[in-house]
Design goal:
Blueprint (H helix, E strand, L loop, with lengths): L1 E4 L5 H13 L5 E4 L10 H4 L9 E3 L5 E2 L2 H12 L9 H29 L8 H21 L10 H16 L5 H4 L1 H11 L2 H4 L9
Parallel strand pairs: 1-2
Antiparallel strand pairs: 1-3, 3-4
């Protein structure tokens, strides 16, 4: 049994679990509790990952894999799935670049969120947060431009990452109302979100 140190609100954990569902491996993963935080290290994670970040996957051998990019490709390889990670050629580089774009959107969104939730009020820097949201908006514009060419079924890792990134904005940044400015991305996301692996991994906050 594979073991995953996770947080139910993490979009990177969602990306891993969505890939596990697409590959048919979700029932082979045991979820281990953790309390990942940008400031307060959780020793349960740090025992396996010096960065103390989720997702961290523990193999049956005890070896730990991180981050989400490595774990997702490992799961695809384990399942013999060549769709999520094309093996070579232009399709591979396109999928990996889209993954980087989606991860970059998430990195910026998380930094913007941490500026409000993890930093003391007297130390918060509005210009820093605003700069992160500029990056988010630039990523959204690029996803919107690519949306007509994105797969709605049988996705590669790029589409999975986009779906998780846009879902995270809905979850944590509803005030951005990104759909109003990016209708093609919104149209694609609505169809992609309906796929069973995306429905099975919708984010939720256990604290309400």
């Amino acid at each position: 049994m594979l073991k995953l140190l996770h947080a139910p609100t993490s979009p990177y954990v969602r990306k891993v679990m969505a890939c596990a569902h697409f590959c048919g491996l979700a029932d082979r993963i045991e979820w281990l509790p953790s309390a990942a935080h940008p400031v307060q290290r959780d020793g349960r994670i740090a025992a396996h990952n010096p960065l103390a970040k989720v997702p961290t996957l523990i193999l049956e051998t005890g070896q730990a894999l991180f981050d989400s990019r490595v774990i997702c490709e490992y799961l695809a390889a384990l399942a013999g799935d060549t769709r999520l990670f094309p093996s070579a050629g232009a399709a591979r580089w396109e999928a990996l670049t889209r993954q980087s774009l989606g991860d970059g959107l998430l990195d910026a969104a998380l930094l913007a969120r941490y500026e409000r939730t993890a930093r003391p009020a007297q130390s918060q820097w509005d210009a820093w947060r605003d700069a992160q949201l500029v990056k988010v908006e630039a990523c959204l514009a690029e996803i919107d431009a690519q949306a007509p060419a994105l797969a709605r079924e049988a996705p590669a890792i790029g589409e999975v990452t986009f779906g998780c990134a846009l879902g995270y904005l809905d979850f944590r940044f509803p005030e951005l109302d990104w759909r109003a400015r990016h209708p093609q991305a919104a149209h694609w996301e609505a169809a992609f979100r309906a796929l069973p692996p995306m429905q099975a991994t919708l984010p939720h906050d256990p604290q309400g």
